[in-house]
Specification:
binds iron/sulfur cluster, Rossmann fold, 28 strands, 686 residues, alpha/beta, N-terminal domain of TfIIb
Amino acid sequence: MDIKYVSTTCPYCGTGCGFNLVVRNGKVFDVAHWQRAPVNGGKLCPKGRYAHEFINSPDRLTKPLIKKDGTFVEATWDEAYDLIAEKFGSYKPDEMACLSSARASNEENYLMQKFARVALKTPHVDHCARLCHASTVAGLAAVFGSGAMTNSIKDITESKCIFILGSNTFEQHPLIARSVIRARGDGAKVIVADPRNTPTARQADLYMPFVSGTDVAILNGLMQEIIKNGWEDREFIKKRTKDFEKLREVVMKDAYSLENVSKISGIPVESLRTAAGWIAQAEVATLIYSMGITQHTVGVDNVKSTANLMMLTGNLGKPGGGVNPLRGQNNVQGACDMGALPNVYSGYQKVTDEATREKMMEAWGVDDIAEGKVGYTVTEMINILADNPGELRCMYIMGENPMLSDPDIQHVEEGLRNLEFLVVQDIFLTETARLADVVLPAACYAEKDGTQTNTERRVQRWRKAQDPPGEAKPDWQILCDLGRRMGYGKQFAFESPEAIFAEVAAVTPSYHGMSYGRLDPDGLHWPCPTAEHPGTAILHREKFAMPDGLGVFSAIEWKPPAEVPDAEYPFVLTTGRVIWQWHTGTMTRRSRSLEKEAPIGWIEINLEDAKALGIRDDEVVRASTRRGSIDIPARVTPEIIRGVMFIPFHYKEHPANMLTHNALDPIAKIPEFKACAVKVEKIVEA
Ligand code: SF4
């Protein structure tokens, strides 16, 4: 029997764990621990352990499909490419938009934005970072000059106080949670603030349940308490930051006294006081956040406020400190780094800077690319499609499923149905692919080489373990084929992912020093500017990445969510994930071992709220918002704060995003998934 072990990187969360795919007679059939893996040292969470199970699913797409008279018909690659090239060639650049993918490799994301900008000449390219951490990219870049985790995962073990805000780390990034546990074992205090008593909250020394959408008030209150006690790090503030007085003026207002913050957030005054003391007086403290912070109409404000707190206490640029946003998807950091965003080329080089645009044209060997203007974000694309039909007419979506992942999915469907021509490239026939005119079958992570960048900015390898099924091809090959069809043979002449990565390194300053050879065995953290540079695990050690080197304090007032409870919709709805499932379930729901653990959705309701509504545990209830209604089993529990309800968003049978609100943060254009007004009723049989 021919058995081999192929080391690669997990396709699920942004932790970037490594494992071995076990291959027998050319087919992957298991996952085995890879003790040498740099991030996780061989340990895996359930999703990683079973990351082989969907690979050879009978549902995989194996041939291109073209829709004829409303029905998909199998086609050859030539037929599909000819049709796509003809259609893409018939629209004006501003009428076309592309969605790249946080699940695809760096090379593929780089090629998708290059395809959009060079072959289609459209500035409208984005991906699902818009739905998770767009506020991080915008917020941290504005205050530190770099929109990513400031420290490394391993570095969390050095901390003496860990403040986890809006992150269910133990379920969503379990292998990062190990670092939290290790720090706690070495005496660190752990503070968790979350509306739900999650597995993360249950590990805390101090748990602070709070009403979703009150983060800025909480952070301002903590800062007021720190300043009142004289606990701020005056030397750090003086030497490394600016605009402290502006911050001080706001946070010292009566509105942010602990008593007032307690009324707004529901957190007891004593807990707030304790948290402020622990954070400020620890030898070194770190702040970890995730989508509980970012998915709000005030997402950027929330992010800047976390930065305020950590600068105030001098916890940046040193081991065990930092502001550490945990990125969701395996390669959402990389997709952003590669410029699959409407405002930047790779390495966050601005599209509006004419010198950079000229540089990219020269590097790509063309004399014209997309206009130097900021394109549409994915949330803007959907709104334009639904509200101004005819403005955007054609879309190319690679490895994304907005029909389940985006807010207010009736609105999303209305928008996508208004397209004249839709191409979807994926590994399964997703809810979005069903609406397409052409579906292209793609290879999954186990069927191609490439790189991905995890949440701590570490670039690591994927390695091919088996051939794709049927006629499916890696995304990078499809993009090269299409680029050549569109007349850009030289620009898309790549023969391998390694050759694409060499171009990435050449045009991306933070990746300049990287090559496939250098990524073994441990990967490299960006920035890595030269071939001799060891990579950068901790950012901002001496100065921030701003022109004057100073971190910027932001004076931020608390604003309530865009939609607050009222007499008709009296509860706050928040959404999120569970450890057994991933995103829209495309992969995990086809993994037997994961699906059997959490096969259906539910709505979590506080015991007292359920009693008042006459709702029993497990009873199917109707949850409604101003966008729509779903019928869903109730999970009655004391583990969620009164007045707040929670639905996991993985399940097409109980689609949480039928209910969510598409109100956007004005800067990051991220939707407010974490707070809208909902009502829940008993279903009365007619
Ligand atoms: Fe994969 Fe994330 Fe689990 Fe690691 S923690 S095995 S990267 S899902």
